[in-house]
Design brief:
It is built from six helices and six strands, in the order ββββαααββααα. It is an alpha+beta fold. α1 packs across α4 and α3 runs antiparallel to α4. The protein is elongated.
């Protein structure tokens, strides 16, 4: 295994002979169908084999605190884009759930089941090409996921539709605008805006939110990311 082997490669239209030396690496044992072989405990079996190639590795690169505002701005921009294109993303998610297209992570639409799966992946210490995922990386990944989730909920809650807080904010803003216009025209105070008249709209919005949540749960199960 430690003896170099001559390998002929083709690069830029020309053949070259290079010398490579295989290294011993733990590789997964697979059956004739290509499926991993497990032992009596259910763990995937590995064995030392000569290996030549490229394997992924884990690592961290320190970043300057000056990059934090840019990362936050990028996260906010992605959240706003996901909310603005929510109907389109939900449409493609349903198409993926029906098996009519491949689900894409770029849609930004994920349900409760999908978030739970992402959290499990973030905190998992499963084996990779570079070994076990370090605890520091798992903690940082989970914190980033929690921060992204809170940011998404914050932005979605500000959508100016009842029963979200954004609907009440919109009512308060409209009330202030009416008073400013009345004051500029020398008219009496028109009084507060009766948001109770929007209760039917809020009920419809609440029903749509429930339907969307149930649909995304189904999509996360039928076509997981």
């Amino acid at each position: 295994m430690e003896q170099p082997t001559q390998v002929v490669i083709e690069r830029d239209g020309a053949t070259r002979t290079v010398s490579v030396t295989a290294v011993e690496a733990q590789r997964t044992v697979r059956d004739s169908q290509g499926a991993p072989v497990k032992d009596a405990t259910g763990a995937v079996r590995t064995e030392a084999r000569p290996y030549v190639g490229i394997a992924p590795s884990l690592g961290t690169i320190p970043q300057s605190p000056a990059k934090i505002p840019g990362l936050i701005a990028q996260a906010v921009g992605g959240t706003v884009k996901a909310i603005a294109t929510l109907p389109v993303g939900l449409y493609h998610a349903v198409q993926a759930g029906l098996g009519m297209e491949q689900r894409s992570a770029d849609s930004g639409v994920v349900g409760l089941v999908g978030m739970g799966r992402m959290a499990g992946q973030a905190t998992s210490g499963g084996a990779t090409g570079g070994g076990q995922v370090p605890l520091s990386m798992r903690v940082s990944s989970m914190l980033v996921l929690l921060g992204s989730l809170n940011l998404a909920l914050f932005a979605f809650n500000l959508v100016p539709l009842l029963p979200l807080d954004g609907g009440h904010v919109a009512g308060a803003c409209w009330e202030g605008i009416r008073r400013m216009i009345a004051k500029a025209q020398g008219k009496p105070d028109p009084g507060p805006v009766d948001t109770a008249k929007m209760i039917p709209v809020g009920q419809v919005g609440f029903g749509l939110l429930i339907v969307m949540a149930l649909v995304l749960v189904w999509v996360d199960i039928a076509a997981p990311l």
